[in-house]
Amino acid sequence: MIRKSFVFATALLVAGSCTAVQAETLKFAFQGTLNALDPYSLNETFTLSSLGNTYEGLTRRAADLSIEPGLAERWEIVEPNRWRFYLRKGVKFHNGGDFTAEDVAFSVDRVRSEGSDLATRVPADAKVEIVDDYTVDFVLTGPNPILHYEWDTFYIMDKEWTTEHDAVRVTSASDTAANYAALHANGTGPFKITSHEAGVKTVFEKNDDWWDEATHNLDTVEFTPISSDATRVAALLSGELDMVYPIPVQDIKRVNDNAGTIALTGPELRTIFLGMDQMRDELLYSDVKGKNPFKDARVRKAVYQAIDIEAIKKKVMRDLSTPSAIMISPFLFSRAGEFERYPYDPEAAKALLAEAGYADGFSVGMDCPNDRYVNDEAICQAAAAMLARIGVKVNLNAQPKAKYFAKILASGGYDTSFYLLGWTPGSLDSWNVLDNLMNCRDETGAGSPFNNGGFCDARIDELSDQILVEIDPDKRDELIAEAFRISHDNAYYIPLHQQGLAWGVSDKVQLVQRADNQFKFRFVTKN
Amino acid sequence: MIGFATRRFVQAMIVMLVVALLSFTMFRFVGDPINQMVGIETSLEDREALRERLGLNDPIPLQFYHFISRAVRFDFGTSYQFRQPVSELFAKRIPATLELSFTSALFALIVGVPMGLFAGLNRDSSISKLFLSVSLIGISLPTFFIGILLIFLFSVTLQWLPSFGRGETVQIGSWWTTGFLTVSGLKALVLPSITLGLYQMTLIMRLIRAEMLEVIRTDYIKFARARGLPDRLVNFRHALKNTLVPVVTITGLQLGSIIAFATITETVFQWPGMGLMFLQAVQNVDIPIMSAYLMLTAFMFVGINFIVDILYFLIDPRLRVGRP
Amino acid sequence: MPTVSNEEAKADVPERSEAAAATGRLTRMLESDFLHAFLRSRVTVVAACGTLTLFLLAFLAPWIAPHDPFDLASISILDARVPPIWMEYSDPRFPLGTDDQGRDLLSGIFYGMRISLIVGFCSVAAAAVIGITLGLVAGYAGGRVDALIMRIADVQLTFPAILIALLIDGVANGIFGSLDRDVFAFYILIVALALSFWVQYARTVRGSTMVEKNKEYVQAARVIGLPPVIIMARHILPNVMGPVMVIATINLALAIVTEATLSFLGVGMPPTQPSLGTLIAIGNDFLYSGEWWIAIFPGLALALLVLNVNLLGDWLRDALNPKLR
């Protein structure tokens, strides 16, 4: 690595002499780590976002998140249940291998194989038929208008390379030897990964043979994980790094005031909400015995109306949030504007509680993560204080995400009475929200696995089934709106807000902040 | 001697075994590793299948047996997060932690010894009192707070020193990387070493001072002075030499705790060492890394204790008095 | 001192270094001559007064603090991050400003100090009880019992307080399912701290016991047939309490600092029941954004508290150390 510092020195010299050729290095940090490089081993935003600079899918998403051709030049629905993808010709993997239909078929098999965390990207019963080297058909068992919605993160791998290095099996946690694909990457994307030390540093270098015209001017990208908020911000402020994300909302002003750095903020697609146990006959963590107050819509509405979302926005989120009346970002559902939050009104809330027979309030345990969402714990604390004012005594249990998820999800037996959760539909579509959060479920989670509160509304289930197969966009939106209306009227959930994104960026760097919080190097220029 | 060493050795082995049992049983109950390995959308059946494959459903004694037999071969399995063998991950991280610990111990000695000597010899000078007061304040603030304040002052405000990481490193041999050979590597060492070494420095300073105060009062020093030996000779040849024995011992014992407490410093400075990896492993319920770290620190402590005991036996004549 | 037996010397030598390492924070200190003793005691008087004042503020918090930071119904998020009274946009209700949830910082510090001190006292007491008992038994019984206890102590030493707290936290969660952190964090902390501190007492008491048990008065007691428990408790214990007091005082300071560190790492007191450490940890997130008071004031309170207790500990050690008298 002496060599590296030498290269760096030359780079400085070149920059100093102000020539046209510039070797630009982008150094950036993120809160979490990039662990395995296998694109199917972890379904997590940052991992997929990073690998998306090296690997590519058949589709990709533009700066505004619209779907555009990726490795597929175009596609069409030739029969209702048959999708045809025309692949881009002349595309090469980083090792020089050709990209063909074989690779697509191979990737589909691999992504659905045991150990893959992204198995749902392609329906299990869908068949792949290779028409010719550059044409692939997907044969489905029923209509599915959103088949390709998540394919921007379903990355195509090279069949020859993967086979040659004995990495056909997806790296699984129970493997004792490291899988080649977990430590090396061979994609078609604009950057190659030249060195990867998990949890320490990953170096990307420009792929000169990329099929698309590069709009970025980077030669090297260095990624370092920095988990401590303060250290991450400090590294940006001191000029050691060109970009860090996320930055805590309270430091936005500091980053903006500092010469040479700005905070880039924007809306994120994630919706933060409160859920309540509506399944058990008696709450687990409460002084109410023999009944479950949350089964009463009046109690749910009382909790809803007791929360001053504007105060949370102003004081906890420092205006970097958009209060929401529905469970999906308004960017993802055109008719979101029709919905309005129940107004903040503690008096009305108290009246509702009294009407439901809880004039003196009750106590309830609340589960909250403290390292998952923006200011998650502070939001819960604020909510607890607000509920205290209508007589609902909240015992807050805020934990790191590992323990939190282990407790409140199916694997922990939905061990919660009242919880805060966030959700981004991976397909950027409402059906994902209904399917995961709002359908009925049983004790094991069959149905909507993330409907932790376990409420069950037959009409919503019915609507979801219709939405999945409805091709006409207007009719589809009508059905979605009806489902969200039912949820709103019954206060099955208490949506809070869409949190904001906050990235800290050096003045020298121009980039695109996508609302899905993915950082793509191909949008970056540095001077 | 042999008997003493053997007894100590057997005891040390038992200690290691107990630590292994503890780390194994305890970590068996920390969170659910399955949640960490899979994404949020993995089904319950898949989770159960994974649990079965990982052997998490085996009877506990069997799991412990597997654990021990692998641990002696330095095989701690594959990290749940990184999907890489834990031993390899540690091999990569150990140089960072050892270099940081070494530098901070060096800092503690180089600054602490002269300060202690000065304070011991010039008990009533105001500088001595200043040293004492400053060191008191230093140990009254938690380490993480000191680290954050140093970053705030020297990285963010003055922009003199880097706030995180090791800077550029140089590869030596196949498995050692060093930050000692580059300017950025050396710069990166400054703040973390001070943060980590401050407490040890205080300890050494106070220890030397106290020892000096005691030694100076002993008869042989008084006698040396009475013989008319120059102060310098008395102070450094006779007094200091006697002071150093406990200092060296304590430094040895503290080395283990430096490595253990490096976790906090490494977190604050994002130093890519074992401690940081351990804390991240705790947050992510990465059991293999956690148990390996625990076994490793235990091994170091037990090893150092063992060596210190043997050294005592060799050095201290009293231990040999009355031996057959 | 009677002739040093082999066994005893072996115990005594490591003891010296252990005790010094253990007594850790402050190590041995000051000395004899009159002028200095006087100066020294002036510091001590100030430290004693300071400690007493802080203790009073802490334990009388419910009566003297202007607000109750634990009463959720009384705090408002709209009061969050109000600066101290001498700054712009301050609010006379909050002399030292408020934290990120709108809690009065002055009251928060009083209550936080109270929690820090309760955690400190309880853990020190628990550690002392465990340590003294095991130390007495080990020192008095000797042989295999001694070896066993000291090996346990070795195991113990391999686990720094932080690791122990993380472990206990995890184990507690694993065994009892998910716990109400508000209630259990406190006990987890005490157990964690007690388990990491008892070794020092055990080692020190064991060393002293080995010296004492060979003295004439103990031998006399043994000759008249008193049971070992009585001998240990009545005769030996009072004679080994000196060093225990010193360790306890210094441990109190150490416990407070360790608790703060654990809170920083997220296994200490929850933000709904903040100790001084939790308050600093919360405030840390606001250091760069200009809301320095949230971290600095609790930090100062913590430093003051620890400093005063440390000074008292120093004095106590000197007062009880015959070599320095």
What does this structure look like?
The complex is a heterotrimer of chains A (527), B (324) and C (325). In chain A, 28% of the residues lie in helices and 22% in strands. Chain A contains 15 helices and 19 strands. In chain A, the strands form five sheets. In chain A, strands 1, 8, 9, 10, 11, 12, 13, 16 and 17 form a nine-stranded mixed β-sheet that branches. A four-stranded antiparallel β-sheet of chain A has the order 4-5-7-6, covered by helices on one side. In chain A, helix 8 runs antiparallel to helix 10, helix 13 (430-438) runs antiparallel to helix 14 and helix 14 (458-469) runs antiparallel to helix 15 (473-490). Chain A is globular, with a radius of gyration of 25 Å. Helix content of chain B is 74%, strand content 2%. Chain B starts with a helix and ends in a 9-residue tail after the last helix. Chain B contains twelve helices and two strands; from the N terminus they run H-H-H-H-H-H-H-E-E-H-H-H-H-H. Chain C has 325 residues and is mainly alpha-helical. In chain C, helix 4 crosses helix 10 (276-284) and helix 10 runs antiparallel to helix 11. The longest helix of chain C is centred in the last third of the chain and has 38 residues, at 228-265. Chain C starts with 5 loop residues before the first helix and ends in a 5-residue tail after the last helix. Chains A and B meet through helix 1, helix 6 and helix 12 of A and helix 2, helix 3, helix 5, helix 7 and helix 10 of B.
Describe this structure in a few short sentences.
The complex is a heterotrimer of chains A (527), B (324) and C (325). Chain B has helices at 2-28, 33-37, 44-53, 60-71, 86-121, 126-140, 143-157, 183-217, 219-226, 231-269, 274-283, 287-315; strands at residues 170-172, 176-178.
Keywords:
heterotrimer, A: 527 residues, alpha+beta, nine-stranded mixed β-sheet, four-stranded antiparallel β-sheet, 19 strands, disordered N terminus, B: 324 residues, mainly alpha, MetI-like fold, two-stranded antiparallel ribbon, 12 helices, 2 strands, 2% strand, globular
